[in-house]
Amino acid sequence: MSLKIISFFSQNIHQGYPTGTLVRFLKAREWNVPKAHKMLVDCLNWRVENDIDNILAKPIVPTDLYRAVRDSQLIGLSGYTKEGLPVFAIGAGFSTFDKASVHYYVQSHIQINEYRDRVILPSASRKHGRHITSCVKVLDMTGLKLSALSQIKLLTIISTVDDLNYPEKTNTYYIVNVPYIFSACWKVVKPLLQERTRKKIQVLPGCGRDELLKIMDYASLPHFCRREGSGSSRHSGNETDNCYTLDHPFHQQLYNYIKHQASIIAPAGPYKQGSVHVHLPESAAEESDIAKTIESELQKFGNQTRLTDSLDALKVSDN
């Protein structure tokens, strides 16, 4: 791939490291140069068409709406690994995505991505004296239910946005507090994943505390990993530990940063209300297959559960 394309890079993509960015796109396309070139050009076009460079100047307002998004799209920064990688905690099981439109959730997700790339990762790089380009994610499956069927479309959209435009930004996915319904889905989904992706995913026993303490200090553990059975409740007893809430320092800093950027662009205000309508990409064939497989397994699980409930009801009636 010619490095001449570097001159067309957005600073917000490469953060001063264009060669490293090329490598990320090459990895994402298994080192196939033409495919990586196309992926990068498509990404640049997507950023221009959707004004992504200015998305951190478009706050979700009013604040009550943004708080509702935070309470139903559970994600936050819990700390850093011993090597300096940001640790993002995700409440996959308890996220309901039912307090706002799809566009608000996609906007919020992209804003967190951009804030990570423009602020969090450069800050970590300066602190550790080396270029840090990725994070780790800890996904809590507590509360995962059949109702997740209704969220598959949105989750596929978000996953596709990440895969096409933010490749190789997650070093490892740690999955904890796994219920049976996840184990059943994982068994059939795992073979569908590319080997590169499979190697990034680690399903840990219980809350994952002992394993995670090997790579991070206790203070950086997500609140749902600090004791067995703690789970990712939307509101823990200590709000400063619950990195999902808008009151957590990470989300306060993020939201204030976005409002400050908005005030620079339009100092007279007020903030424009309404979601940013980002073009929602079509999922790749692999992701469509995975989504369909998950949906099928959840439906099977639901049918089995209803059959068991029916049999139990018959037994009660016979008694």
Automatic annotation (TrEMBL):
Alphabetical list of Gene3D superfamilies matching this protein: CRAL-TRIO lipid binding domain
SMART domains, per database record: CRAL_TRIO_N, SEC14
SUPFAM superfamilies: CRAL/TRIO domain, CRAL/TRIO N-terminal domain
Residues of the CRAL-TRIO domain: 62-222
Highest taxon in the source lineage: Eukaryota
PROSITE patterns, A to Z: CRAL_TRIO (PS50191)
InterPro entries for the chain: CRAL-TRIO_dom (IPR001251), CRAL-TRIO_dom_sf (IPR036865), CRAL/TRIO_N_dom (IPR011074), CRAL/TRIO_N_dom_sf (IPR036273)
Coiled-coil positions: none
Any single Pfam family the record assigns to this protein: CRAL_TRIO_N
PANTHER family: CRAL-TRIO DOMAIN-CONTAINING PROTEIN (PTHR46226), SEC14P-LIKE PHOSPHATIDYLINOSITOL TRANSFER FAMILY PROTEIN (PTHR46226:SF6)
Name used for this protein in its record: CRAL-TRIO domain-containing protein
